[in-house]
Amino acid sequence: MFGASFNLLDFIFSLVALIVAIDIHEFSHAWAAERLGDPTPRLQGRLTLNPLAHLDPIGTILLILVRFGWGKPVQFDPFNLRNPRRDGALISIAGPVSNMLMTAMCSILLQLIFRIPAPGSLVIMVAGALLQQIIVMNVMLGIFNLVPIHPLDGFKIVEGILPEAQAHEWHELERFGIIFLIFLLFPIFGGVAPIQRIISPVINFFLTIFLPK
User: Fold this and answer.
1) 121: domain range?
2) What is the pTM of this model?
3) In DSSP terms, which residues pair with 71 in a beta bridge?
4) Of 76, 58, 64, nearest to 19 (Cα)?
5) Over the chain (213 residues), what is each successive 10-residue block's mean pLDDT?
6) Which of 91, 83, 102, 78 is CA-nearest to residue 35?
7) 172 vs 179: CA distance, rounded Å
């Protein structure tokens, strides 16, 4: 019974952490679009930290069932941007950057909490466990979205930094994005998804930096 309670607590913490990560990620896309002159996200009610505005129905169901999901993509109108390719890249990178900033802030809080002289305090233990989950989820979401495959943020980021001719060719790959993404998410190599083999070393590198040793 005691072990089951802790498993439930871990599940709740990871769920809350993933919602926080998705919320800050999508809000940052909307905030960047607003700052760059596109009111589309604000008009669609996305310029808010209310997680209900950013949760995708299917992604939320998967989030609850398997603790992996996604948020509702923030839409922006490139015709409202001064430099559509560059500004589109800035809007896209705002999500992962916000996740890493959240990670850094939570890491600092976690270090401070662990220095509080209150051994065995339940509040300290709970706060520490929640902060660790928030760090893990933000790193995972931020790094995952940097993969340069549509509809992930990395695709638009690469398009924004390429020269115009190469960017046009790169944009043509957008139509195949979902196919590539499904392939990378499908566990075909020893039961492990290719995407996991690609990004796990990067995720682990950042976790060694931000989680207490």
Assistant:
1) 8-210
2) 0.90
3) 55
4) 64
5) 58 89 96 97 96 84 65 92 96 97 96 76 85 94 92 95 94 92 79 85 95 83
6) 91
7) 14
Residue 58 belongs to some domain of the structure: yes
Residue 203 class from Cβ within 10 Å (0-12 exposed, 13-18 middle, 19+ buried)?
middle
Locate tokens 């270090």: which residue? Answer: 111
Torsion of CA 101, 102, 106, 108, to 10 degrees: 20
Residue 159 designated active-site: no
Helix 84-114 / helix 153-161 crossing angle, nearest 10 deg: 130
Residue 71: inside a domain, yes or no?
yes
**Both structure tokens of 29:** 């896309």
The catalytically annotated residue of 26, 159, 169, 172 is 26
Q: Does 3 map to a domain?
A: no
Q: C-alpha angle 69/100/85, rounded to 5°?
A: 80
The total of structural domains in the chain comes to 1
What pLDDT shows up at residue 158? 97
